[in-house]
Amino acid sequence: MAITEVVKVEFKERRSREISGTLQVSYHSRYQKGHRDLEGVLHKDVDIRTCSRPLFSIRAPAELLLLPAYHQHHAYLSHEVATTLATHLNLDPQMNHFVTLQIASHATNFMVKTHPFGYSIKADLELLRFVESVTDNDDDEDVDYGACPVCLEDFSSTVGSRMVMTDCSHYFHKSCLLPWLKKQISCPTCRRCVVDIKN
Hints:
Blueprint: E1 2-16, E2 21-36, E3 42-49, E4 53-60, H1 70-88, H2 93-114, E5 118-134, E6 163-165, E7 171-173, H3 174-183
Parallel strand pairs: 2-5
Antiparallel strand pairs: 1-5, 2-3, 2-4, 6-7
Helix pairs in contact: 1-2
GO molecular function, one term: ubiquitin protein ligase activity
Organism: Quercus rubra
Protein name: RING-type domain-containing protein
């Protein structure tokens, strides 16, 4: 089983008539699970996206919007974004650094383009977690997986139902796990978070 975590950033920007710089950051999470069959074809089993939520807002001081100060503007935003992201989201340090640089660089480049005016930028982060499993051979038919913890039906008695496994190694019917994950982002068995986000 392979687990991949990615952060994507989408920007919406507009020029401001005032000499001010505003950066609003929001985020949503996305959980995808899939498997590769023996021919190497990837099949998506689960794709759940949460609604976008505001995370934080930063207003750059007006003196940092003057063109000679754009290096200070970048340093200021880098520090503020890195500190605030680390407070709100549980990203590994390298990913936090990458996202911070992406946001600060984008804001600074847009600030230079809009000079002598200010800017307003909205950055939406997508925290994507993709879990991929490989379908082994047909020997799995001899393994007893027990019962689905959600519907309590034995896996061997539900012919044709798709079985999925969480990253904490618990098995469920796909038709049982999907509705559960739309309401809660935790494993129904051990309550471990499927998508690790700090509030």
